[in-house]
Amino acid sequence: MEEKEMTTVEPVEETAAAEEAAPVEAAPVEAAPAEEAAPASAPAPAAAPKKPLKRMQRRKVCTFCVEKVAFIDYKDINKLKKFITEKGKILPRRMTGVCSEHQRHLSEAVKKARIMALLPFKGE
Ligand SMILES: [Zn+2]
Q1: pLDDT the model gives residue 28
Q2: Rounded distance from Cα 14 to ligand 1 centre (Å)
Q3: I need a labelling partner for 63 at 20 to 30 A (CA). Which of 39, 55, 74, 94 fits?
């Protein structure tokens, strides 16, 4: 339990570095490993759930707050692309970890970029 806190404190840097190397669309989204149901062989695990808690919830930090971005530029499509799906939809805050204020700016920027035909409205 103590070392859980140690590991949770390194949130954004590694994703930022990883995205430079390999451009993946939905990079900030962490894939939830499929949790299996209670093993059928175990006799009544009601009292003590002995599941290994592998899924550490790392605290997401708003990328824009870290970089102290006051204004999100709609022309900066490489940055905006990290916050939209491959279909062009804006990713929800719960996936990206963007704070509410920056999410508002971000959605405005994405919508402007769509109008300027920098980003797709739909599909691709
Ligand atoms: Zn923010």
Answers
A1: 47
A2: 18
A3: 55
